[in-house]
Amino acid sequence: MASNPRPISPHALAYLNTNVDLKTYFKRQERRFVLGLMAAFLVPLALLSAYFHYQFHVTLKESGKSSLTAIAESQRNTVDLFLQERLVNLFALFSSPAFGPAPSQQQMDALLRQLRQTSDAFIDVGCVTQHGLQIGYAGPYPYLQYKDYSAQEWFSALMASQRGHAISDIYLGFRNKLHFTIATRQVIEENTYILRATLDPEKFYLFLQTISWGKSVTSSLVNNEGRIQLGHPAMDDVLTTSGYLPPAAKSSGAQTIFTNGQAVLMAHAWLKEAPWSLLVSQPQSIAFAQLYRTRFIMLISSTVMLIVVALAIWMTTHALIAKARENAEKHEELSAQLLHASKLASLGELATGVAHEINNPLAIIIATTGVIKDMLNPEFKMDHSPEQIISEIRTVEDAVFRIKGITLQLLNYGRKNQPKMRPANINAILEEVLGGFKEHALALADIQVIRQLDPQLPDILMDPDQIRQVLFNLINNAGDAITGPGTITLSTLQDEETVRVTVTDTGKGMDSEQIKKIFDPFYTTKEVGKGTGLGLSVSIGIVESMGGAIEVQSLPGAGSAFTVILPKQANKGAINGKNNAN
Prior knowledge:
By secondary structure, this protein is of the alpha+beta class. It has helices at 10-18, 22-92, 105-118, 153-160, 201-210, 284-287, 289-326, 331-376, 386-411, 426-434, 437-444, 464-481, 512-517, 535-545, 572-581, and strands spanning 122-129, 134-138, 165-167, 180-188, 191-199, 218-223, 228-230, 252-259, 262-270, 276-283, 422-424, 447-452, 460-462, 486-494, 498-505, 549-555, 559-567. It is elongated and about 115 Å long.
């Protein structure tokens, strides 16, 4: 958590010996360290805790609204289904043997029995002519026989409906009792017949209660004018105006309203079968109970964490200062030893990295010299003409110059050399990297190389040697990532501004944490002794120095894809600016 105290110089020790005792000096240092570290650790931690607490508060509130909206939508779907079933029950009567153009009382009674077998919410049933006269009736209100319904709202809505059915609001009607009507029409022998049935709101409300989500959640139905159609007895009376009119523009949603000084979370969902909206309400104290509990836990946890961090800072600093006070006279010598050990460790890592980076071109040199020997051996009958030998020697020369470039980059690690930009073709460089040894080595490892190269790829400004090093490293890493048989796909494409080279493998892949670190120096996912982690660090530096970038996509067990993006028009100003800064 804290670093070791700074070394005490001989002048400071002389001052301590002559002016201030050692204990007082280190107490002063301890106080400075504790205050500084607490400011550095606790203030950002407190700010982050406050920020995350706020974000968590907002998120959970939205989650509470979404949850209640989901309840409203679920109940809405169930109510819609209930109404659809009742309409289907009514439509089915047209095909019933008991139905006729001029139904008798026995026929109407049979139709009512058939309806009540499907749902006890049905009160009565009537047969109405296209002019609104009820010519057949069965139910508890026989005086409704021959009533004229032509002036009723449900009759007008039914005759204008394209769907052939209508559902009315809750109303009193001729019987002066709360009910609502569902009606269907059917054309039989060029005559329009209407079957209407009324449903009991109390039975409908009992059905609504059976699909409720607990005692704290109450449900009601309102029409598009805000009049309550069905409601909880503890709330408002039916046919009175609700205190909340849901927005007609939104099919569902939720918001906080205040009723009698109490905050209530109200969600709505408009029905599809009737011009009603289902309202679901819940006291905010209950809806957000989990939020309040979690917020309390977070506050306690944050406070405890801050106290623990403060204690850890104080205890750690106190221990470090105490140790420093005991070893004050030897501190200079120990610091020098630690610095020397650190330099040795860095040197060892750098040497391992140099060996890893140089090993690739050395392998090419060894393989190429072996090819030259085979060419000069008469037994193999290979082409050993001077031109062919010179071609292989040039491969060796290229590898040697590549080694030279690597050593120059490592020697000038603090200042990068300007890339030697000249026009070159990515496809050609890929073929050079794969040519001969590398593709053969991959084939021996049962790794197939698939080329998907754009033949229309233009030449762009780049440093071919450095890009060759980048591509060789990516292909080499792809081969190392594959265990057993696999494939490496090399693809090139272009757009208006860039040329892209993608190396895709079917290897073990990486998780998100590994992807974040792969370009860090000395970080590697390979086994110990098989990589130093300098390859990708050097590669990203090369590509960025040319104004480009490297993108990575990977999933554990699904392989990886590295894409080198180079601009068609090299950003010379950026390159020159980098070198001037260095």
